[in-house]
Amino acid sequence: MSPEFSSHVESEEPTVGDVANLSPDAPVADVLRTCRGIVDSELRRLTEFLAEPGKFGRSCPADLKKAIRYSLLAPGKRLRPAIVLLAAEASGGDVAAALPAACAVEMIHTYSLIHDDLPAMDDDDLRRGLPTCHRVFGEAMAILAGDALLALAFQTVSETRPLNVAAECCAALASAAGPEALVGGQVDDLASETADEHSPEQLQAIHSRKTAAMFAVSARLGAMAAQAPARQITDLEEYGYALGLAFQVTDDLLDVQGKEAKVGKRVGKDSDRGKLTYPGLLGEAESRRWAKDWIDDACARVQSLNNPRRLEALAQTVLERDR
Amino acid sequence: MSPEFSSHVESEEPTVGDVANLSPDAPVADVLRTCRGIVDSELRRLTEFLAEPGKFGRSCPADLKKAIRYSLLAPGKRLRPAIVLLAAEASGGDVAAALPAACAVEMIHTYSLIHDDLPAMDDDDLRRGLPTCHRVFGEAMAILAGDALLALAFQTVSETRPLNVAAECCAALASAAGPEALVGGQVDDLASETADEHSPEQLQAIHSRKTAAMFAVSARLGAMAAQAPARQITDLEEYGYALGLAFQVTDDLLDVQGKEAKVGKRVGKDSDRGKLTYPGLLGEAESRRWAKDWIDDACARVQSLNNPRRLEALAQTVLERDR
User: What's phi and psi for B131, nearest 5 deg?
Assistant: First the structure.
């Protein structure tokens, strides 16, 4: 296991100040571990009081809360929220201001995993090293837990302050999660299973929406929450986009080469199903070249920032990841 | 068919100014028809350009667009968006400012119908007089069309202006659509099918979240978009809440008594399935009394407004509806 994605045990509750306290030369593994700790702690807090009766007798059924927390708090790399926090830091802004957006992108990511794993979609049994949500809680509850996380994501991002920034963050996140991006990519991904011909253009059209759009909006939200200038917001969004495309290639490579226990989901499943993948289409060596090109592109996008070092290091870990 | 919910044919594109141009004494049927025309026209516009390629190669797959529009533009009463618009008008504010929120609540409503109808949930074949989304487009596409509408709702409500109001509207809508309200109510509704005992308290706990929370937030969003004073926002929210509870009782009564062709969905289905309903629990006469009490309560909440007349008339149509 590479050190940067090591085990999911936190000794004490981390705070967002821990990112600021990291030395500029801290190894990326430490940086990512710190971000993950902060995000996990906040996700626990945000979902802890769900079942308490609220206004108009509102309350969350205990089983629904359990299903939401089962999937949301399962061990994960928390890469997307780390991008949010590190983009905020690289913009020279207040990292704490980006915490709601960081949690919101993880909620969107988790909802999409729950729904993608459903029997009507990819029909998967294993996710993040655990049985999938519908295997544990049933199909209806899994659909509803995903729906709840999608709504919670918008409730969470709307807690960004000041309010005008919250509204812009909400719009950006909705666009990245919507029919022209995340959902549209999943529709085309499912359709690709039964397509007669596959091209690199089709593959990129899928993953630019299914994966890269969420990476792009993660970096964008961090910069927006930090109230960065418009040019920096765009540069960071393009960094995230290129990073997301590279991540998908390495994800496909792990599906071919990875060990199930380490990857935490079924491997070899994409090619078994005739799904379009980078190594399947381009071969492994060419796929590695594509990933490297996108990582180079991502790093080039952040050269204008005062301190791109952590974002560059993060990009390298995506290239070298083994889970 | 009662005149206020008459057929779904519009002669020309209505505009939001048509609400302001209605005489104060216009029959509620005309008011609702005008609201429905405005909302339908805007929903068509908002989903018309979905498939065009956008930023980062974003685009909506043609089939997904078709499924979204099939369900969203199907003939409906558009009662929730009408509440948004009429609450804005009753607050003395700009009705046009409430149009994004009006469309957003209809998107949330439609998403919840698509998901509730799924085989894993209520397994329904008929909705709004048409085959359900999954019967036409398949289960995976129906799940994804619902997901897309949920995200689109937040993209749409975030178009409210000024931006600080948009952020507050986004937060209110997310809370009403989330695990403590809409989703939580559906979880408990499904669980009630297999419960041994039923009480009026349980039933109200379900519908206060599954139905009344969306009616309440509709009225609240209208008042917020109109920038009404806090007291009016609360009064209107409580009007919507009581109206929603009454609506659910009359919905259950229609399920017992209604004609399928008129109601546009399978009738008798709730009692067939052993589902908890008001007439099943209280009898028809007592259910009517409950509905009347809630309508009286709703009307009492808006007496402090300058012009509660249209909201009172709307409440009466809920009591007297036959579809």
Answer: -60, 145
Please answer yes or no on whether B143 and A148 come within 8 Å at the CB atom: no
- For A101, residues 6+ apart whose C-beta sits below 8 A from its C-beta are A84, A157, A160, A169, A173, A218, A221, A222, A224, A225
- Chain B CB contacts of A241 under 8 Å are 56
In terms of phi and psi (left: phi > 0; alpha: psi -120 to 50; beta: otherwise), the region of B283 is: left
Question: Quick check: B233 pLDDT over 90?
Answer: yes
Structure-block tokens of residue B16? 């939001």
Taking the model in full, what pTM does it have? 0.94
Our measurement of the distance from residue A184's CA atom to the centroid of its chain's CA atoms, rounded to an integer in Å, reads 17
Mean pLDDT of chain A: 91
Residues of chain B neighbouring A110 (CB-CB closer than 8 A): none
Are B181 and A58 an interchain contact pair (Cβ–Cβ within 8 Å)?
yes
Give yes or no for a contact between B92 and B37, defined as CB atoms under 8 angstroms apart.
Answer: no
Phi, psi at B127, each rounded to 5°: -155, 130
* Per-residue DSSP letter, A2: -
Contacts of A121 in chain B (CB under 8 A): 140, 143
Distance CA B49, CA A64 (A): 36
Cα–Cα distance, A102 to A35 (Å, whole number): 10
Q: What is the secondary structure of B120-165 as a DSSP string?
A: TTT--SEETTEE-HHHHH-HHHHHHHHHHHHHHHHHHHTT-SSHHH
Q: What is the pLDDT at residue B323?
A: 76
Nearest-5° Cα angle at B220, B218 to B223: 110
Instruction: Identify the burial level of A110 via C-beta atoms within 10 angstroms of its C-beta, where 0-12 means exposed, 13-18 middle and 19 or more buried.
Output: buried
Interface test mutation site (partner B, options A170, A217, A227, max chain B beta carbons within 10 A): A170
Minimal Cα–Cα distance from B213 to chain A, Å?
A: 8
Q: Can you tell me which residue has the tokens 């068919």?
A: B1
Nearest chain A residue to B142, by CA: A120
- Give me the amino acid identity at B70: Y
Enumerate residue ranges in chain A where pLDDT < 50: 1-10
Distance from CA of B22 to the nearest CA of A (A): 33
- A205 contacts in B (CB within 8 Å)? 57, 59
A143 vs B164: CB contact, 8 Å cut-off?
no
* Cα–Cα distance measured from residue B130 to residue B132, given in angstroms and rounded to the nearest whole number: 6
Say what the pLDDT of residue A104 is: 98
* Alpha carbon distances (Å) from A264 to A323, B173, B240: 8, 35, 46
Adjacent-strand bridge partners of A130: A127
Contacts of B229 (CB under 8 A, 6+ apart): none
Quote the pLDDT of residue B195: 82
Task: Kindly state the percentage of chain B with pLDDT values over 90.
Answer: 76
Residues A252, A82, A115: CA angle, nearest 5 degrees: 50
- For residue B171, the chain A residues in CB contact (below 8 A) are 155, 158-159, 166
Q: What is the pLDDT of residue A276?
A: 81
Sign of CA dihedral B48, B51, B57, B61: positive
Which segments within chain B are labelled E, that is strand?
A: 126-127, 130-131
**Beta-carbon separation of A61 and B184 below 8 A:** yes
* Exposure class string for B229-251: b at 16+ Cβ within 10 A, else e: eeebbebbbbbbbbbbbbbbbbb
Residue A163, chain B, CB below 8 Å: the answer is: yes
Q: Which run of H or of E encompasses B41?
A: helix B28-48
